Amino acid sequence: MSEQVIVDLLKAVGLFFLNPVWLIALGVAVGLGYFRVKKERRSFLVRLHPGLTEMKKLLAESWMPALILSILLSGVGLTVEVSWIVLFSSVAVFSMISFFYQIASPIYFAAIAFFGLYALQQFKPEFTFRGWSPGNVDLQGEMALTVAVIAGLFLIAEGFLIRRHTVDYASPFMTSTNRGLRAAAFKAKRLWLLPIVFLVPGDFMTAFTPYWPQLTLGAVTFSFLPVPIVIGFSQIARASFPDVLFPKIGQAVTVLGSIVVVVGVTAWWLPVMGWAALLIGVIGRATISIVFAIRERNGGFAAAPKPTGVIIAGILPESPGEKLGLVPGECIRKVNGIQVSNEKELYDAIQVNAAHCRLQVIGRDGEVRLMQQVLYRHDHHRLGLLVVR
């Protein structure tokens, strides 16, 4: 028996990793890294992070929120229909292959899947698939509560991931200003995969794994169903720096998720509030994206060239520049006592004392500070700085 349980657990893990959502997400993450590296090299002749970074971070950054959500959903007893999960996953796949990650928030997937089921009930009530029909789903009852609360929790997780894991991987690139000058902007395009365990009614998993854990309440049996949930994010920062803009967006998404959860809980007494919670989530998430995008598009460039020195657009990981604590947007005015105004002058000045580099840096706040760093022969790209060219 114990051996069969282990075999069933391995089968369940295999089903998760053979899920089209997981396989497509893996391929898309590789593509994200490829296009990011290509764009960075076009702008700076060097990439900031390795091309497989997005793939490596696909689960590494999201497994903890996924674990917390899985325990919370199962512990509270929020159940969803398999049909909703299928539609949810189908919309997620479409968003991934479109590479348009402004629409890759799970609130959109949840709402489209929910109202898609409602549309099937209204316009194709006779539709059946292996004994399932839209009429089997009670969208006016428990589903209105559970889907709204789950969607709100997904928004909270999305806000957390945006706050914690977008700033360090914002990709700088060169673009033209309205005056024809060259300035730097920063793009975060991330994809996370959350392995969520849902509680679904019926013995769905026993068809694949007879000894898979189940829960029985009265006459109803529930199965634990592992599902890969996709969260995507895409935003350009140009009027603000990534460490200023992205945490604000993450905070706004987290607050919105909390509101959706609170409104969704009221569906316990008034099911229509679950519908309202989903609409609030969709409208609110779209508003957040639009408002921040307009602000960044209409504002000036934060990393624009200045006559006072060389503007930093990015710092290579584990480089001397990172050890110095330099950040994008700061201005290098002097190197080894020599005034610099462009990239060539910067690296020519470094060669004056290639083993020991002294910098005069103007911070974003306008304060001037002096810094020095020992440079070694193997240091890649010398200071490891990507500068506005």
Automatic annotation (TrEMBL):
SMART domains, alphabetized: PDZ (SM00228)
Protein name (Swiss-Prot/TrEMBL): PDZ domain-containing protein
Statement: the UniProt record of this protein carries the keyword Transmembrane: yes
InterPro entries: PDZ, PDZ_6, PDZ_sf
Residue ranges crossing the lipid bilayer per the database entry: 12-37, 107-123, 143-162, 191-211, 217-237, 249-269, 275-294
A Pfam family the protein falls into: PDZ_6
UniProt keyword list: Membrane, Transmembrane, Transmembrane helix
Domain PDZ span(s) in chain numbering: 299-365
